[in-house]
């Protein structure tokens, strides 16, 4: 069983500011113990939580001095496996690796509630079922979503408006030449079912479509979220992509011309209602805890995101809520 916290063996410090090459784990790590704080879920934030747990470059993580470890299982293994089995804590039965925000949150409530999972990584807000299940969002970072295309030459125009984006994903716009690009049949891509980025993107398609849900065209291809390979392989491909993750994916380029669609979002860890009073909550997730600390800021930025400001600075880092965060004040 390989777990992403070992990935810090492969991190590299670049320049005077901590910028880390996102690399695969170099070796397997030990099974978490019952006292450890264990989670999984979002592909978007897996590297941020790895760094917050184990450090990056010369900056130590929470596990450097903590009595119990902060553990974060990647959504996908270094060799590309998804939905293989993992053991959350020693002595517990193996479970299917959660891939994406929705699957991570599912471990915290309802029929699949698993007491060995203490939190979930999420790049999306809560559904009504998750709210009814007693889950809470704990915001910690700011990210964005933009449309990504191949960096090494593509047929897309410099600008893709929200209306054009709806046309691309609904199938009414099928060739780049019709919206100012070079002739080529568009290959729209979307993250896998259960991805927080997909949930957010589909909500944005609906908003851009006047509040009516967009029925995805049959030409839309489902891919692993934030995997640059399928985009980089096709000059006609386009996909929603985290701006933080894109900063470490040189094979893709973001469509950022004036008027292009873009979206700002918060990133979260999700906990059960009862766990907000657990002894581990404040020191790890709370507004005065590790993730929202100055040291946490360095590690969050190493993963390409911005740390949200805490309450004393007019922000919401570490403040548990069931509503999507709209306060994007950062440190």
Folded structure, characterized:
The chain is α/β, with parallel strands linked by helices and 331 residues long. It folds into two domains: 187 residues, D-Maltodextrin-Binding Protein, domain 2 (3-Layer(aba) Sandwich); 122 residues, Periplasmic binding protein-like II (D-Maltodextrin-Binding Protein, domain 2, 3-Layer(aba) Sandwich), CATH 3.40.190.10. It is 19% helix and 19% strand. It has nine helices and twelve strands. Strands 1, 2, 5, 6, 7, 8, 9, 10, 11 and 12 form a ten-stranded mixed β-sheet that branches. Helix 1 packs across helix 9. The chain starts with 36 loop residues before the first strand and ends in a 24-residue tail after the last strand. The N terminus is likely disordered.
Shape: globular
Binned, the helix content reads 10-25%
Report the span from N to C terminus. Answer: 36 Å
- According to DSSP, the number of beta strands is 12
CATH superfamily of the largest domain: Periplasmic binding protein-like II
Rounded mean pLDDT score: 91
How is this structure best summarized?
The chain contains nine helices and twelve strands.
Give me some keywords for this one:
single chain, 331 residues, alpha/beta, D-Maltodextrin-Binding Protein, domain 2, 10-stranded mixed beta sheet, globular
Q: Secondary structure elements and their pairing?
A:
Blueprint: E1 37-41, H1 46-54, E2 70-73, E3 85-86, E4 95-96, H2 101-106, E5 119-122, H3 128-132, E6 135-150, H4 162-170, E7 187-191, H5 196-208, E8 221-223, H6 229-232, E9 237-242, H7 243-246, E10 252-254, E11 262-272, H8 281-284, H9 294-302, E12 306-307
Parallel strand pairs: 1-2, 1-5, 7-8, 7-9
Antiparallel strand pairs: 3-4, 5-11, 6-9, 6-10, 6-11, 6-12
Helix pairs in contact: 1-9
